[in-house]
Amino acid sequence: AEKYPDKYQELIMRQGQIGWGQLLYGRFSSQWSKCQVRFRQEMGLAESSRSHGPTWLMQFIRIIWNHVHQEWITRNKAKNGEDSETRTAANLARIKRQIEHLYTFKDK
After folding, report:
1. Residue spans of alpha helices (H) in 1-108
2. What is the Cβ-side half-sphere exposure of residue 35, based on CA atoms within 13 angstroms?
């Protein structure tokens, strides 16, 4: 964390306490909002209802959740198929793997 500017140290420490992996679940430290407000002030940007720290954070979380949800949909389509033909192929592949696994116990 030392390689980051001092103004981010509190954010890094607080998010570290929560866990960085928790970001994908929408568990952000309130320091994110404070950093957003400070950033806008440093840039000379006017505060608006949409850019206000807590509102910005909720919008940011929603963007991440939408992205994670789309990734989940894409993964499930790839794993389970997206139409009857690809679902059948996925099921057959799954059954084949199960049979091959069971065959490893044949001579035991």
Report:
1. 9-18, 31-42, 53-80, 84-103
2. 16
CA gap 70, 8 in Å, rounded: 30
Distance CA 80, CA 28 (A): 32
Residues 38, 44: Cα–Cα separation, whole Å: 10
- Convert the pLDDT of each residue in 35-50 to its tens digit: 998 998 999 988 888 8
Phi-psi region at 19: left, alpha or beta (left = phi > 0; alpha = psi -120 to 50): left
d(CA 44, CA 74): 40
How confident is the model over 7-25, as a mean pLDDT?
94
Name the band, by pLDDT with cuts 50, 70 and 90, for residue 34. very high
